[in-house]
Amino acid sequence: VCRPGVQFVKQGDSATIACNATNVPRENITCRTKGVRDSQEVASCYEISVKDVSLSNVGYYSCDASAIVNETNVDLCYLEVTYPLKKDYAFCPHVSHVARIGQTLSICCPVSSYPPPRTVTWTKNGTQLQQGSETKLTIILDKDDKFGNYTCSASDDNPSTEPIEEVITVMKKISELPVTSTNETDTKAAKVEWTPHTQAEYYLVNITGLEDVVFDDLVYVGKETSLEIHYNTLVTKKAENKPERIEVCPVVSAFRNGTVIARTTITCLTVRSHQMTLKADIACFLLVFIGYLVW
Predict the structure, then answer these.
(1) Nearest residue to 16 (alpha-carbon basis) of 47, 38, 46
(2) What angle do CA 227, 232, 236 make, to 5 degrees?
(3) What three-state secondary structure class fits 267?
């Protein structure tokens, strides 16, 4: 007989599992551990002693007794190790996630204890989302406000144990919108073209630039998939001293249900003033004319 059948021992304490057999010589009793890293077999034993119990000692222990040749009686005991609430990233290693809009995501609270945490509370921006013993939270990322920081708070049955909190961050992954940009050296407009997105309801184009251009200037909202940015439409920080050559960086965002679903990478183009374009045309004409005369 293996006793106790189930034993709960605090982590760090010692455990003793007794093997009792009636009318069986000691040499016919074998103690075994099963399913643990430090598995062992001890012959001629009456007990199994485990010192400084750790989680690696969790598992079944058996007492095998044989009074008659080829006949063995086996009895099993189970050792469970209890430990207080703690942060545990072994089964929940990620505290930051990147997901797409429309995706269903499961996040987990990186805590563990035995017995398991009594209460795990999930909140976002102070609003409670879920409370119970479940350490996982399932999120349907159908809106922009579903992205951000989620806080889990876990507590156990011990009133002296402080709750443990962890913040899980969910960031939105935006797909890339392919773009084709054309900008001739003598043009006073930069043309931007992009590949249509099958789910886009409309596009929004912002431009940023260097020191001379106002950043985050909205220049277009609509369904077209190309845009010309003209020099005379650009608003500079110093209107009275507008440079003849301005570098602009248009960014195209595709929207659906008011949410960004794709965005182009930044591509910078040069837009020139009418005067500079005219000067370039005259210079080109003079070069051609002089070449004709020399010829």
Answers:
(1) 47
(2) 100
(3) coil
Nearest to 5 by CA among 18, 21, 14: 18
Among 85, 252, 211, smallest CA distance to 156 is for 85
What DSSP state is assigned to residue 233?
G
Q: Is 171 helix (H, G, I), strand (E, B) or coil?
A: strand
Place of tokens 């985050």: 216
Q: What is the pLDDT of residues 92-149, one digit of tens each?
A: 888 899 888 889 999 999 999 998 999 999 999 999 999 999 999 999 998 888 999 9
Q: How many CA atoms lie within 13 A of 222 on its CB side?
A: 6
CA–CA separation, 115 vs 242, rounded Å? 71
**End-to-end Cα separation, the chain, in angstroms:** 115
Work out the angle at residue 292's Cα, subtended by the Cα atoms of residues 290 and 295, and round it to the nearest 5 degrees.
110
In 3D space, the residue among 143, 165, 246, 264 whose CA is nearest the CA of residue 206 turns out to be 264
- pLDDT average, residue stretch 58-79: 79
Is the whole-model pTM more than 0.90?
A: no
Ramachandran assignment for 263, one of left (phi > 0), alpha (psi -120 to 50 degrees), beta (any other): beta
pLDDT, tens digit, 9 for 90 and up, residues 240-283: 677 777 777 888 999 988 878 888 877 777 777 755 444 444 44
226 in Cβ contact with 193 (< 8 Å): yes
Phi-psi region of 126 (alpha: psi -120 to 50; beta: other; left: phi over 0): left
